[in-house]
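Contributing new complexes? Match this layout with coenzyme A.
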Amino acid sequence: MLTYKKASLNDIPIIMDLAERSWKVTYKDIISAEQIEYMFNNSYSYDPLKNQMAEQGHTFLIAYEEENPVGFASFSLIGKTTFKLHKLYVVPETQGKGIGRYLVEAVIREVKRLGASILELNVNRYNAKAKAFYDRIGFEVYKEVDIPLGDFFLNDYILRKKL
Ligand SMILES: CC(C)(COP(=O)(O)OP(=O)(O)OC[C@H]1O[C@@H](n2cnc3c(N)ncnc32)[C@H](O)[C@@H]1OP(=O)(O)O)[C@@H](O)C(=O)NCCC(=O)NCCS
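Output block (do not edit by hand):
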């Protein structure tokens, strides 16, 4: 059975573990090893995660299969009624079993309660699997963007779903 809960600061080690198991493998054929290391350290180590939760108002949801954490999502308000899905990761062993959809549906329920009309996200243009997943669950391309980040670029689509 799948369940989810809103994460607190105490859950950061669980999120770090899920990210460690799912993030690097996702991007190994998409971006350079240097960029993987840079982005991972900047977004998925303890202090950045704490900052996102405590200072930037990001809500994290952790999905559990029985009692095992298997994925997480994070979101925040970015416009009047626009929310951004910042992160969505399911560990490789349990991908393709409906957990990604379950987490996005949970995020949609949470943000709708807060008055959302649009859910937006960035996905790497070369992350074909994630793009196919988002197509399947009803997101559409809103824009293409190339965002400088340190010595690197994020070559992303911005996708949106009207709620
Ligand atoms: C992308 C990701 C979150 C999807 O989660 P998931 O649990 O594997 O996907 P689900 O099983 O919930 O799939 C939901 C639907 O999308 C479809 N889908 C999933 N992956 C797909 C793919 N690669 N190609 C085509 N369709 C796909 C499924 O068939 C399913 O369709 P259905 O509900 O109509 O049967 C997950 O694979 C993941 O964590 N990937 C690595 C990290 C990543 O890229 N995150 C996104 C960063 S922006």
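Reviewers usually confirm one structural detail per submission. For this one: The first strand starts at residue 2 and ends at 6.
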